[in-house]
Design a protein that fits this description.
Layout lengths: L2 E2 L12 H13 L10 E4 L4 H12 L9 E7 L8 E3 L4 E2 L6 E2 L2 H9 L3 E3 L2 H6 L7 H7 L8 E7 L4 H15 L4 E6 L4 E2 L15 H17 L3 H11 L6 H16 L5 E10 L10 E11 L1
Parallel strand pairs: 1-5, 2-9, 3-8, 3-9, 4-7
Antiparallel strand pairs: 2-12, 4-8, 5-6, 10-12, 11-12
Helix pairs in contact: 1-2, 6-9, 7-8, 8-9
């Protein structure tokens, strides 16, 4: 049995189940249930000291009693990938308990010919999926034996491939027993990220970054994949999970065009790792959202 270890535990988040449980409890208790039950969420994947409180606003919207399967779509940071990849593991280890991969859904996805398998070292090096596992385990703790996970590493997709994967995932999104977790940070600003867009009309640099991110968040809320893609092309905002977000938008758009579903997405929390005031500063932005079927 192949198990993916919790490679970032003890550094990006606590490897103590007691301490981790206390942190997540505090963050979840500080968040309100205002846009649920979530069928999909967007939440960040940085170290918990930076984004754990922000992530809680997305995870608070989940109704664990209805969830049987959790899809986790995370961007690839370390390997070039033109499509999407599945894990070779059967379980993902967390400080709380092990999460079991849904082999049936994996077989269905693999049968489409649109997915490859990632090596275990690639899987364990990547943090975009792992950073959601403790939150998933925490929220689903009372149902730990009755749900599975479907981790998917998302590459640098073209518009056409985002649309194709969106159509492919749309039938799973339509199932109320499925939850989609979309892993993404927002603007990575500073010379170390090779992105220093600044519009002084909005005040200081951190205010300009906030305005830039808000524009993107507003477009994501419209569930219009074309508008979001055009925004990225025009302003170049360094949203690392833009392709997983694009796949979600395509899936939602596909369902709404079929006329059978009314879908709403709302951003609930926004934060920045630091407030940039000069061109030598840097920061990463975080945002949490919930998508519901009305």
């Amino acid at each position: 049995m192949s198990c993916r270890k919790a490679a970032h535990a003890g550094s990006w988040y606590s490897d103590s189940s007691t301490e981790l449980n206390r942190q997540l409890d505090n963050w979840l208790n500080a968040a309100e249930l205002i846009h649920g039950p979530a069928r999909a969420i967007i939440a960040p994947h940085a170290g918990y000291q930076y984004c754990g409180a922000c992530s809680a606003f997305a995870y608070r919207q989940i109704s664990p009693v209805v969830v049987k399967r959790v899809f986790i779509l995370g961007p690839s940071h370390n390997v070039r990938l033109a499509g999407c990849a599945l894990s070779t593991a059967v379980k993902y280890i967390t400080p709380f308990y092990d999460l079991t991969i849904d082999t049936q859904v994996y077989s269905e996805l693999e049968a489409t010919g649109q997915f490859e398998r990632m090596d275990m070292d690639v899987d364990e090096e990547e943090h975009s999926i792992e950073m959601h596992l403790p939150y998933i385990a925490k929220v689903m703790a009372d149902y730990r034996d009755s749900f599975t996970i479907v981790p998917v590493l998302v590459g640098s997709l073209t518009w056409e491939r985002e649309a194709a994967y969106g159509r492919l995932f749309s039938r799973y999104l339509a199932d109320p027993h499925n939850l989609f977790v979309i892993s993404s940070d927002f603007c990575h600003w500073g010379h170390r990220f090779r992105y220093t867009f600044y519009d002084p009309a909005y005040g200081e640099i951190h205010q300009s970054i906030g305005r830039l991110d808000k524009m993107g968040m507003d477009l994501i809320e419209t569930l219009n994949p074309s508008a979001f893609t055009d925004y990225l092309k025009k302003l170049g905002n360094t949203i690392c999970g833009r392709h997983p977000i694009g796949v979600l938008l395509q899936a939602a758009s596909h369902l709404m065009k079929a006329g059978e579903h009314k879908i709403s997405l709302k951003f609930l929390k926004y934060a920045q790792s630091s407030q940039c005031r000069n061109m030598n500063d840097s920061s990463v932005s975080y945002a949490s959202a919930s998508l519901i079927f009305e």
